[in-house]
Inverse folding.
């Protein structure tokens, strides 16, 4: 499932200090190597499908380019799970995915549990390409410092981007049970998202950050809990459970939104 959502920033408790900033956040999650467009069932698109095809890297990049041309302050993010899902990954592992994802123009991303499925050796080249493309991978609750393969790509705990004089802090996390459900190896460590965020929020606030955005791959219910327990988070971009969230009415009847 590929999601492209436009959000105009307007968190109430920050409105007084940040009322002059309009921030457009574009985000995708759980692409799962679906580089090409697909039909409404997630399958291959054929000519007879006509206009009933969705997603695909080309369509996403074109839309992001269009919005960047129309809006002043745009951040483009991804909530993890770039890997798995199609023969592109099954046959070629990270190679094609790394090349494509690193050239989509993301500003900030977090990792998903499936990025660890084939071990640190498969993840390291992906992180290398992201770094070369100036894509910041944020892992507030992830520690690679004891892993011989990944330690050179240890993720930042947070990142800060200044837009129109406002400091925007970015947090990122992957679901901690990745330690057991995937294959990160014994030396990659995951902490609880809430505890990790609470600690890093203090650092961001002390450094003068005005707005905090979290990118998480933890699942819809867990992400609701995260924003409840870490109220300093103004916006959360999530992933993992492929939850369909939508406010419009023009959606396929097979896919009922579970929330706004």
């Amino acid at each position: 499932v590929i999601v492209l959502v436009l959000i105009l920033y307007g968190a109430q408790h920050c409105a007084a200090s940040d009322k002059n900033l309009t921030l457009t956040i574009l985000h995708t999650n759980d692409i799962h190597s679906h580089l090409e467009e697909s039909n409404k069932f997630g399958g291959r698109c054929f000519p007879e499908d006509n206009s009933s095809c969705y997603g695909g890297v080309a369509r996403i990049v074109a839309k992001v380019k269009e919005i960047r041309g129309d809006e002043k302050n745009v951040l483009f993010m991804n909530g993890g799970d770039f890997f798995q899902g199609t023969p592109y990954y099954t046959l070629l592992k990270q190679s094609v995915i790394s090349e494509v994802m690193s050239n989509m123009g993301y500003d900030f991303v977090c990792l998903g549990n499936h990025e660890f499925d084939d071990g640190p050796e498969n993840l390291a080249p992906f992180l290398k390409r992201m770094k070369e493309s100036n894509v910041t991978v944020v892992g507030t609750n992830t520690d690679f410092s004891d892993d011989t393969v990944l330690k050179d790509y240890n993720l930042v705990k947070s990142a800060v981007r200044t837009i129109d004089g406002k400091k925007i802090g970015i947090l990122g996390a992957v679901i901690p049970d990745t330690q057991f459900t995937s294959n990160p190896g014994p030396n990659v460590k995951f902490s609880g998202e809430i505890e990790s965020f609470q600690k890093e929020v203090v650092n961001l606030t002390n450094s003068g950050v005005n707005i905090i955005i979290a990118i998480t791959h933890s699942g819809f219910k867990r992400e609701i809990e995260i924003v409840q327990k870490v109220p300093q988070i103004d916006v959360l971009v999530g992933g993992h459970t492929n939850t369909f969230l939508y406010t419009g009415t023009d959606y396929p009847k097979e896919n009922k939104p579970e929330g706004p």
